[in-house]
Amino acid sequence: MSQDRPNFFSGPYIERRAEEREDPQWLAAARADPETLYLVGQGSTQLLRSGSEPQVAFLANGAALLAAVPPGNLVLLGWFRGARCVLADLPAGAAVELPPGTQLEELRPLTALLPAAEAGLLAYARALTIWRARQRHCGVCGAPTVPTHAGHCLTCTNATCAHEFFPRIDPAIIVLVSDGERALLGRQASWPARRYSTIAGFVEPGESLEDAVVREVAEETGVAVREVRYHSSQPWPFPSSVMLGFKAAASRGSPVHLGRELEDARWFTRAQITSGEALAPPTQSISWRLIESWLKEED
Which domains does the chain have, with CATH numbers? Predict the structure, then answer.
């Protein structure tokens, strides 16, 4: 596989500097730094500048909107384009006045329009926001949790428990299966007409990534695969996955037997894909990267 460009949402878009999260004075330092950038979010939406080419609406210290954000809702993301960057998570349902020319937007519909580095930053912030909203209570004893480690840890307030919770990522495999001349693609009923994509599914407990590839392809299409090879990965913050891309081989002429999850699955030649008979997934997805690699016959 060519390593010259990362998958979308990936790459060195931010210096995380995880050691800075251990500084108990990190927030005071951020507020004292005139270069600090604040990325504002509320639920799964984030503050963007309106226009044909949307961009993150970064705020600076002193911005009126930041007064609506409790200290516990501030998270140190790292250093973006050389400046300290902090996620300011507005309380759910809070009615606030947004700066002129901005609005709270969902990331997914705008992915193709955003600069790659900003899209990666928003994906990172979105995943943290959703995790924090879902971990407000201890999963061990049920007590409320409070943020620590600059917002990257939620700690149980019950002193006899004091369990620490860190962000969780759901691993999912996604695989381009080929029998040599054809690729196996499937579609869900909710997708646009003719849209097909590579086979994907979540990894189960006690299962290796390679085992998950074999199982998911068999469950969804009835096709037996071999020669499972890793290709690349992609963070996917909808809501909190990491897509682990593979290629795999199947015997020529393997019949397809649909499982319960897909509306359709079939074999496509390169000509059928390039002609548009199968509508390919968005170019920002790892699914397209796997298909593109196969079309170009990259290793």
Answer: 18-134 (3.90.79), 170-295 (3.90.79.10)
CA 105 to chain CA mean position, Å: 16
Residues in the chain, total: 299
Question: Do residues 38 and 89 touch, judged by C-beta distance below 8 A?
Answer: no
- Within 10 Å of residue 259's Cβ, how many Cβ atoms? 14
End-to-end CA distance of the chain: 5
What is the pLDDT confidence band of residue 9, given thresholds at 50, 70 and 90? Answer: very high
Longest Cα–Cα distance of the chain, Å, equals: 66
Assign 35 a pLDDT band (cuts: 50, 70, 90).
Answer: very high
Q: Enumerate the H helices of 50-164 as residue ranges.
A: 116-134
Residue among 224, 182, 222, 176 at smallest CA distance from 200: 176
From residue 297, how far is each of 168, 178, 289, 291, 293 by CA, in Å? Answer: 35, 11, 12, 10, 6
Half-sphere exposure of 158 (CA within 13 A, CB side): 11
Tokens 């579609």 -> residue: 187
Tens-digit pLDDT profile for residues 263-293 = 999 999 999 999 999 999 999 999 999 999 9
Per the prediction, the chain carries an average pLDDT of 94
What is residue 298's predicted lDDT score, i.e. its pLDDT? 54
Return the number of other C-beta atoms located less than 10 Å from residue 266's C-beta: 16
